[in-house]
Amino acid sequence: MSEMFFDAAPNATRVAPARPLPRDYPATKPGDVYLFGTCVVDLFYPEAGLDAIRLLEREGVRVHFPDQQSCCGQPAYTSGYTDEARAVARAQLALFERDYPLVVPSGSCAGMFRHHYPALFADDPVLLARAQALAERTFELAEFLLEVCRVQWRDQGPPVAVALHTSCSARREMNTHLHVRALLDRLDNVERREHDHESECCGFGGTFCVRMPEISGAMVANKVESLERSGAARMVTADGGCLMNISGAMEKRAAGMPSEHLASFLWRRTNPAAVSQ
Amino acid sequence: MNQAARIPAVELSSRQLKANAHEALNDAQLRTNMRTAMDSLIAKRLAVMPEAEREPLRELGNHVRARALSKLPELLERLEARLTANGVQVHWAETVEEANAVVLDIARRRRARAVIKGKSMVSEEMEMNEALEAEGIESLESDMGEYIIQLDHEKPTHIIMPAIHKNARQVAKLFEQHLGEPYTEDVDELIQTGRRVLRKKFLDADIGVSGVNFAIAETGTLLLVENEGNGRMSTTVPPVHIAVTGIEKVVENLRDVVPLLSLLTRSALGQPITTYVNMISGPRKAEERDGPEEVHLVLLDNGRSQAFMDAELRQTLNCIRCGACMNHCPVYTRIGGRAYGTVYPGPIGAIISPHLVGLENAPDHPSASSLCGACGEVCPVKIPIPDILRRLREENVKPPAAASAHPLRGQGSKYSPGERSLWRMWVRLYTSPRLYRAFSFALTRLRRLTPARLGPWTLNHAPPRPASRSLHELAREHLDHDRRGADR
Amino acid sequence: MSARERILAKLRSGLAGSIPRPDDFEPAVVTEPWRYPDRAARIERLVELMSAVQTRFERTTRADWPTRVLDLLEARGIDRLLVATGMAHGARLAAHIEGLAKAPSLFAYDRPIEAWKSELFDSVPASLTTTRGAIAATGSLILWPSADEPRLMSLVPPLHIALLEASRIQDNLHEVIETEGWAAGMPTNALLISGPSKTADIEQVLAYGAHGPAELVVVLLEDA
Q: Domain range spanning residue A55?
């Protein structure tokens, strides 16, 4: 929000942000973190959430999962139901009060905390200060593992070619595509296959996929085709929404490839017990 | 051509975006044409805009536009004063009807029978061709792309490349049908045909019409960019030149156009510059041998001042009409420009059209986006298009009672008490841990009962399959008690 | 109230309580990436960019240029050239062809357009104009058409030959505007020309000679 439209009219706003610059990361690994599970992971990919906890714990970090957490509010926010989004956001804001980093296994939800919470509470100085403080210590999971935990892994799995899909808001608000690529590139037996139109949206877009199902359907169909053309054996993504969209479309079309959340993939590749299972 | 041009263009309604999109999505030729064209435009832009140059330039471009808007009334007055001193006649129009009346007045006074037009999106807003044709005055487009679609009674589907949705085969058929030319798909031959036909028209035209890329207040200069030369023809050969532009197109100083020009041509076409940059500062002087005797500038509002009233929406007016947001938009790429049913399609169209025609006439436009952010990322003047789309969604679902004093026409046009109450339930669910626990318990335990058809979702997807236990449950089991609290 | 007054009043009310943004134009952004160390580098950049869009260069000298112009006209079988015979370069060319057995006829744009519109459009195969300079950064010629060299001279004939003195090539547009003080007084028409007329409106296939010249030849006087 530092980039204010100059003339200080009451509802001034920020300009389109440039690609986020590399941010400053804590020099030392913190002892405790919060995990925000996200609503999609909670009900559809809970194992991915648990794998995220395991990945963090293995780095010697104590993970706190406030039981009253629910959703970051993004679906309502992007649908234009700002008051409703704010009500849900306010409830989350109250749950992460200690000075622990907030780790989110989803780039778009992390982006919501980091970039949109301050906008949501712009009119309330008290909540705004809290939202800004939370934004400052919000990290996407891959970013946190790479830049804060500085993970040193040994790939335990067999050779595999994977395609990476990155959600758009994650890419443009959190640089998640760069972090995940770097993590995958540390796995010796994993070959990351680029696919055509890799930076293009999969068509999920929150409620967009049900409001404009035909357009969204055309987008996800093209995404599935691109992924197939890559020749990858698996697809990974760090975002539950895209995962649900792409894997659901693959299943419907009986096409594509097995797909999973990044956290599960990383845990499986680097944990001997999981590999042998 | 005379006869043909009087048949009104076939237009799709901007209120029917979803139905229009349905048709477009099923047009395999259109899908292929669009994808190929957009991929090529994306690659061209990238090739000439290395990041190290691009980001400081975008920043400067934004500053120049924001500064111009921050003193817009003053700059418009300065522009008018300078142009008037240079001998240009300046007209103001609040509506497209007023703007057409200005043009028709000039045409009548000059007893004009034929008008030749350079490319101008503002004249599309005005439907100037139709207004002139209704008075029996021929109005012919001279930009090759515009000429092609005028032959086919279409409207531009892209603001820079109006015929981007057509391939050479389609153009060949069109020329064969309407011009009686032998069928050829050779692009050079097709262009030579266009050149031959249109050169006659430049000679005979009584009035030339053009748009304006930048109107420079400091010097009273109208700057136009183009590759073909038809813009120079239209503004030089006929005895009268009428330029039409939106009130937002003014910049303060001559040097301000340097970054904007660089951003415009590279973002639009991947060219370091267009073939012609044409700077017009007045009509023909006594000693000069060509150029129009009269130059007019029509400054059109048509809803722009509505966007101007709100600092966030005002940024819409930063736009320099490069079309990069369209080229990078996954929705535009799939449905093409026609489906929007508005003069300006794509992301910029979705945020400008509500001011031009009212949100009630473009109710689905703000929603026709996954908010992927590609448009904001490439916008050369850094318009936060995704933020503005979201803001318009908010205005769109406002209950009528909450409609605010700010003058956005059509607020609440998508208000639905049913949807509003669904979101209220969503709030209750996600702010009440007890309710959420019960809900997630039910959803996970009854997962096998998930219906096979679930509204629009199952059009494109297999039915969603909830997990057997939620992360909340797994975490409760995995973590000790003191790591599950709210930590207050 | 007139439309003018209503529009301005509305815009003013939209700005109520705000202050105009100061002029924070940073020239370095539009100049630094587009600087060239010397004349040779400027020429190289100009030739590279303009050649990429099918502009032909005749690199020559003050002594030789008339011969080169005649050669290129002859190669194309052109026997008429529109040129400002009243200007120094026109007089020079006229003197050069005097006595030559075979030479094109030179004629000037010495009447108002209305007096010879269809002749200009239909039977002028080529023109020769001076230029005011050029811009290396974008590969552009600068023309300020005048009474002697009107606007359509560089647009209507299918072949446009432009004389350019190498010393007049500058780095970038900002430098041109500032050093030449353009803001103090613009001509009726100022032009940047960066190649022959072209279009990509059909399937993005590039075609030259859309409405203006199909061919642009820059006669570059390297010692001038």
A: 32-147
